[in-house]
Please model this.
Amino acid sequence: MIGKSDATPMIAVKDLDRARTFYADTLGLKAVDEQGGEVVTMMSGDTKLNVYRSEFAGTNKATALTFDVEDIAAEVSDLKDKGVMFEHYDMDGLARDGDIYAAEGMKTAWFKDPDGNILSLFQTA
Model:
């Protein structure tokens, strides 16, 4: 059954070199494999994800990838120091405090990669 198989997130980008730099240098992911200059496999913790070249990069208007973090305030501060701008959305049930949104038992923050893919940080309280 598929439910017993590992799943790999796929992140579409227009410029693979720019994306590799952002995901490695800005976010701290590790590139572990490259396939023909079209796909870079990266690791975030124990999660493998593929960043691949596509003309449709950045067209998703929903969160493409979420990082579970222990200290969202520290992560937001670190990313801001690296030039990452955070997104602000009006969402029922979430209270905004700067770049971080909170609801009972959780906190989240959204930002975009260079191609406009929406990424988020998530912390359980």
The beta strands are 10-13, 30-35, 39-44, 47-53, 63-68, 86-87, 95-97, 100-103, 106-112, 118-124. Residues 15 and 124 are 33 Å apart (CA to CA). The domain at 63-125 is CATH 3.10.180.10 (2,3-Dihydroxybiphenyl 1,2-Dioxygenase; domain 1). The helical segments are 16-26, 72-81.
